């Protein structure tokens, strides 16, 4: 399965205007054409993954509103099933997979999710096992191209487990700052350069409102 981390960031790598803030504020700096670029990319993948904080802060639909019948399967990993049952991804007709853990599963909540026609799978003991999850997404759900629009912690798990084949960044020409703000990759981080994940630059294209940057995993 090919996995692409796709993100909108500031020059200093921030995803929002502060912890707990919605990323929608940054999207006001993009044109309709820029937004269409994001949605069209969704039309070329079978699955789109976000973290539970994105669902909580933004309550997105995660659809492709520019092309009919090209909506990816929404996937949300949450170790404790801390997700609002009234979220848009659980209230519309689109396909959604909630991923949880053995320790965090809530049988009553799983039943309610499945009653709405959504999928719920358990993958991991106390933490979501992303390597196993990605294998299951391909073998059980036919997902061969996955788009990850995660926050710093979801992205960190994907990077840390060497699951990201490609990175696409729409870098806005702004500085946000904030020591506690969300960045492209948060988590534990590496203190030894030998462990840092390495990518090669394949494209840098200045556009009217942002710089498009593409990276591929270094072999």
DSSP helix count? Answer: 7
Number of strands: 9
Low confidence ranges: none
Overall number of domains: 1
Write down the CATH topology. Dihydrofolate Reductase, subunit A
Beta-strand portion reads: 15-25%
Distance between the termini: 17 Å
Largest sheet: 9 strands, mixed
Structural class: alpha/beta
> Element order, helices and strands?
EHHEHEHEHEHEHEEE
CATH architecture: 3-Layer(aba) Sandwich
Rounded to an integer in angstroms, the radius of gyration calculated over CA atoms is 17 Å
The largest beta-sheet arranges its strands as 5-4-3-2-6-1-7-9-8
Task: Explain the layout of strands and helices.
Layout: E1 2-9, H1 24-27, H2 32-42, E2 47-49, H3 52-58, E3 73-77, H4 88-91, E4 96-100, H5 107-115, E5 119-122, H6 130-141, E6 145-148, H7 152-160, E7 166-171, E8 199-206, E9 211-217
Parallel strand pairs: 1-6, 1-7, 2-3, 2-6, 3-4, 4-5
Antiparallel strand pairs: 7-9, 8-9
Organism: Paenibacillus curdlanolyticus YK9
Domain Bacterial bifunctional deaminase-reductase C-terminal: 4-200
Pfam families: RibD_C
